From TrEMBL:
Pfam families xrefs: TIR_2
Family matches, as Gene3D superfamilies: Toll/interleukin-1 receptor homology (TIR) domain
Naturally occurring in which organism (per UniProt): Rotaria magnacalcarata
Name under which the protein is recorded: TIR domain-containing protein
A biological process from GO: signal transduction
Length: 757
């Protein structure tokens, strides 16, 4: 007799039962969804036909039916994220459609307000918000993102919600009691929606959020502004807190900051921080939003235009030092001090920071949270990721005094702790985390850490420690050449004071193992002795001045000028070769130049390694050289530019170049008339306004770049933006008009080549 396999029978029986349970659950969910649709439709019909509605189909009966459905959902205890979010979106849409009806006010708000609130409370409980928030973390990233934008679309589509946020509730009867009922209902919906949105934790981009700028972000900011400035400190306090948390969480992703700038959020937040009567949570969220805005370069510009530093200093004196320690617990208070300090570091130059107070914040606020984050499995200290702290440390380390100060702290060994965290981070990225959000933050932390190590590597006293960890440095070099960075680069924001990982690694290796001109493959020089080769070294923040100087010098046939935006050479190997091949280097000195590690590398390579002739040119009359820069130019003849006398100072600079290179050269003003060129070639003048060409050389540089590719690609690239810019004129850019422009550029380029041959 054949032996019966009971394990086989049991396993198949279990799978069959599980399948049956899933099918029954799906059937039940579909039935409930159908009932929800039917009940809301019956409620709408009963409101539209209220006068002729009988008791069986009255609004009260419909509300009772909905209440029973929601109570059934409470008993059901949904534990599948798909079911919960699907149910939430369906009910939300129906509720928003309902409150947009005039009959909602005429009937529900007048007669059934209490019953309606009970039903909504059941809806709120049926979702089990705390449980729903837990379930959102189990949702796939793409599903979370799609859900997030669908909910935003629903909220923005509601006229009643929009009028509520603008304090313009459209109600036919001027009844304060009814307005309060409708207002409370809108508020409850928004609180629930914001709870869900804040829990979804999705990756956001400026381009994706732009369509919500006018319908959501501006109304939110206006709503908070009116609430704070009218001192209504109780009516909407819960909603205000949720809106602030929403703005804080969205702004936590720097790529979204242009939306906040367009919505005038920086100005509003600074205004709110100046008020003396906000509560602790409101101050904290406002300061966190300002800090997030300061993480974006454009945000820093706007904040400084709004006197952010003065506002924060006053906030520190009036609020932070006097009140907050009595209002909130120690951890919150310390975090608030940390946010305040990090914001200050981001908005002003590190060399302007007070040494004593900065050292206190570094010792008791910044370094402890870096250590805590390094020990955390997620690299977080509460809501902060370690990448945020490393970017602050990176900016501080542009000042040598802060590097030495940090390195002397007993509990924090700067370079070794950095290598320990890098070792683990490299392990994380080498196995490629599935979640690109985590991977992006890992790459950002690695890049910031490499920038810090680059700053450290300029100092002989730390080089032995770096060389001891050369294996990790080599792993960083190998990681930089992988495709991981290219994958995550579109998802992260790189501030301008952070150099790319490759540039940082090249800089570290150059400082540890200096290469001279003998180590470089220079190639043979074909330059005539009658032509002097000149390299211009500058900070990219000062590119406008550099272009102006280049445009002037490019008219001089006796000079062959090398500059990165013309040559397209940005790697250290290319830069070093250019320096070696040049007869003379001109350094455009400013605070931006001093803060740039790339500029420091180039300067030291010229002065210390090659001992090559150079000319220091101060392009900011208020800047005074300090530290490593001052030591090397103390006894060197230099030039100071005054914007009011540009051409005369150019002549002085030319005299110094002539003296160094033994050339007979003079400078002449570039007289190329851009507007005349457009007129002469019968081109659309709006193209000049669109591209904003300032000089003939800029026109030639553009021609060089564009004529090597298909003109149709450039046409498609700019056509939409051109037509958007000139929408009021109703101008279209036709292929024919653009081709005329391309042909004129071709002729200009050919003419320029023949004249210089």
């Amino acid at each position: 007799m054949k032996k019966i396999d009971f394990k086989y029978i049991y396993s198949h029986s279990f799978l069959f039962s599980l399948k049956l349970a899933i099918e029954n659950n799906e059937k039940l969910i579909n039935e409930i969804i159908q009932q929800i649709y039917q009940s809301f439709e019956q409620l709408r019909q009963s409101l539209l036909n209220f006068e002729s509605t009988n008791k069986i189909s009255s609004p009260e009966v419909c509300l009772n039916d909905l209440n029973q459905i929601f109570n059934r959902l409470i008993d059901l205890k949904l534990n599948n994220y798909s079911d919960v979010m699907n149910m939430f979106e369906i009910i939300l849409k129906n509720y928003l459609d309902l409150i947009d009806m005039n009959q909602f006010i005429d009937v529900i708000a007048h007669r059934y307000a209490c019953k309606s609130n009970i039903v909504f409370a059941s809806f709120f409980e049926s979702l089990n918000p705390e449980g729903a928030l837990e379930l959102t973390h189990k949702m796939p990233i793409k599903v979370r993102q799609q859900t997030y934008y669908r909910i935003l679309d629903q909220i923005c589509s509601s006229k009643r919600i929009h009028s509520f946020l603008n304090n313009e509730l459209l109600i036919s009867i001027d009844d304060k009691h009814i307005k309060r009922i409708v207002s409370n209902f809108c508020e409850l919906i928004l609180i629930l929606v914001l709870k869900i949105l804040n829990s979804l934790n999705v990756k956001l981009l400026d381009i994706e959020l732009k369509k919500y700028q006018n319908n959501l972000f501006i109304p939110f900011i206006k709503f908070i502004d009116e609430y704070f400035l009218t001192s209504q400190c109780s009516q909407h306090d819960v909603l205000i807190r949720h809106i602030l948390e929403f703005l804080h969480m969205v702004s936590d992703q720097p790529l979204t900051i242009p939306i906040f700038i367009n919505a005038k959020c920086p100005q509003a937040c600074l205004r709110w921080l100046s008020l003396p009567y906000l509560n602790a949570y409101e101050y904290i969220h406002c300061l966190q939003i300002v800090y997030n805005i300061a993480r974006h370069d454009q945000g820093v510009i706007i904040l400084n235009e709004c006197q952010c530093y003065s506002v924060l200093m006053q906030f520190n004196t009036d609020i932070l030092n006097n009140q907050m320690d009595f209002i909130i617990d120690k951890n919150w208070y310390e975090d608030l001090q940390l946010i305040y300090f990090m914001t200050i570091v981001l908005i002003i130059d590190p060399n302007e920071l007070g040494a004593e107070s900065t050292d206190w914040y570094i010792t008791y606020r910044l370094l402890p949270v870096i250590s805590t984050s390094m020990l955390s499995r997620t690299f977080r200290h509460r809501k902060f990721h370690i990448s945020e702290f490393m970017i602050i440390l990176m900016k501080l380390c542009t000042n040598d005094n802060f590097i030495h100060s940090i390195s002397t702290k007993k509990k924090y060994e700067l370079s070794q702790d950095m290598f320990d965290s890098l070792d683990f981070l490299l392990h994380c990225v080498e196995i490629e985390r599935v979640d690109y959000n985590f991977l992006s933050l890992d790459v950002l932390t690695i890049t910031a850490s490499a920038n810090i190590l680059w700053s450290i590597s300029f100092h002989d006293r730390y080089k032995d420690k770096l060389i001891e960890n050369i294996e990790i440095i080599n792993r960083l070099v190998a990681f930089e050449s992988s495709d991981t960075i290219d994958k995550v680069l579109p998802n992260i924001y790189i501030p301008r004071h952070m150099s790319p990982l490759k540039r940082a690694m090249d800089g570290i290796l150059q400082n540890l193992y200096p290469k001279s001109n003998a180590d470089l493959d220079i190639g043979s020089s074909t330059k005539s002795k009658s032509v002097g080769s000149l390299m211009i070294s500058y900070s990219h923040v000062d590119i406008d001045f550099c272009r102006q100087l280049y445009d002037t010098f490019s008219t001089i046939p006796e000079l062959s000028i090398s500059i990165d935006f013309n040559s397209g050479k940005y790697s250290w190997k290319d830069i070093a070769q250019t320096i070696v091949q040049s007869d003379l280097v001109v350094f455009l000195l400013s605070q931006n130049f001093f803060n740039s590690k790339s500029c420091r590398q180039e300067f030291i390579y010229v002065t210390d390694t090659l001992k090559k002739p150079f000319i220091p040119v101060f392009i900011d009359t208020e800047y005074e050289a300090i530290e490593w820069l001052k030591i090397r130019i103390n006894e060197v003849k230099h030039i100071c530019f005054d914007e009011n006398d540009f051409l005369n100072i150019c002549n002085q600079l030319i005299s110094m170049i002539k003296e160094n290179l033994s050339l007979n050269i003079t400078v002449t003003k570039n007289t190329f008339d851009i507007e005349q060129w457009f007129h002469k070639n019968n081109l659309m003048l709006e193209l000049q306004e669109f591209y904003q060409f300032q000089t003939g050389n800029e026109l030639l540089l553009y021609a060089e770049a564009i004529l090597g590719t298909l003109w149709t690609k450039e046409y498609e690239r700019i056509r939409t933006r051109f037509e958007e810019k000139f929408k009021q004129k109703q101008l279209c850019l036709s292929p024919h008009d653009f081709l005329k422009f391309i042909n004129a550029l071709n002729a200009l380029k050919s003419k320029n080549l023949s004249s210089t041959a």
